[in-house]
Specification:
alpha/beta, 24% strand, two-stranded antiparallel ribbon, 8 strands
Length: 169
């Protein structure tokens, strides 16, 4: 599925995410939520399920760039990108890092704070990637500020491939 641009990035997603704060969740919505959280931990079953569904969003000549989590670690999204690559023939380029940790979007939301703007995400490109369409890989996109910061850091037009997309209106 595709959605309009979110913070300057076009987002392709396998599933739509619904927060329990929005009302009762169906079984599929519960599964989407559970898998989204399990992806943050690099859970192998969750990675395989998400990669299988996300593979339809990717072409063999795409370059998959995992987005670091709020601590700067790419391992969970790197595992997801590699699983997608095994299914599609795409290449993986682990190019993004953070100069230091940032407060997570979830923690900011719980404190009633707005999302961290792209300029404060502390993301940078540590290496160049091969030529090809860049697909930024993340588990969930809500407002798109991290994806926008990643696109800015890559200094190139990017698309975002994500397991679940949550529209906050």
């Amino acid at each position: 599925m595709t959605t309009p641009r979110v913070a300057g990035c076009e987002v392709y997603f396998a599933r739509r995410y619904k927060s329990p704060r929005e009302g009762a969740l169906s079984d599929k919505q519960e599964q989407t939520r559970s898998v989204a959280y399990a992806l943050k931990q690099g859970n192998r079953a969750a990675v395989n399920l998400a990669a299988e569904e996300m593979a339809d969003l990717v072409y063999g000549n795409d370059i998959l760039v995992p987005i670091p989590d709020s601590k700067g670690d790419t391992s969970a999204n790197l595992a997801l990108a590699r699983a997608i690559a095994r299914r599609t023939g795409a290449k993986v380029c682990d190019a993004l890092r953070r100069t230091g940790p940032v407060e997570s979007a979830r923690a900011r939301r719980k404190k009633g704070k707005p999302p961290l703007p792209p300029a404060l995400q502390r993301l940078y490109r540590r290496k160049d990637c091969p030529d090809g369409a860049l697909l930024l890989v993340d588990n969930v996109v809500t407002r798109g500020t991290t994806a926008a910061a990643a696109a800015i850091a890559m200094s190139k037009k990017c698309l975002v491939a994500v397991w679940a997309y949550h529209s906050t209106g």
